[in-house]
Amino acid sequence: GELKMLQWQGVTTLSLHNAQGPKDQLGASLITEPLMSFMPDGTLLPTLVKEVPSVDNGGLSADLAPVTYPLLEGVLWSDGTPFTSADVVATYNWIMVPENGAVSIANYEPISKIDTPDDLTVVITLKAGTLAWYTPFTGSYYGGVYAKHIIDQGDAG
Known about the structure:
The chain has 157 residues and is of the alpha+beta class. It has helices at residues 22-28, 85-95, 105-108, 148-151; strands at residues 36-38, 44-46, 66-70, 111-118, 121-126. The longest helix is centred in the middle third of the chain and has 11 residues, at 85-95.
């Protein structure tokens, strides 16, 4: 069917990390997914991951600094390219380049490094443990992951 979004102002970019407010975030969230989302009550919901990391399942360390995300298998970009841990790293790297103008950069500055032991595992190490360990790559406003193969095309993509 047809989806109509009625807003007081039109969407000007579908680049979630360049969104200039809810008008752009709403439009971009229709085509961009985060690793995790929020339920209406604030509960974390796995979106592109198998489960929400926790101390009990081994995904979250006791000091709240390293977080391991097991990615869903079989997820494809719209062109059929598989979604992998390389997409998460490429998105982070793109956000952290000031010239790209990512308005979400503050959500990603707490990251010390991202490791990818394999195509379906992402380990994010934060500079310091925090109760907000889930902030990077979570939520439909600034959590979206971009496709590495599109980022690699630069302005041509």
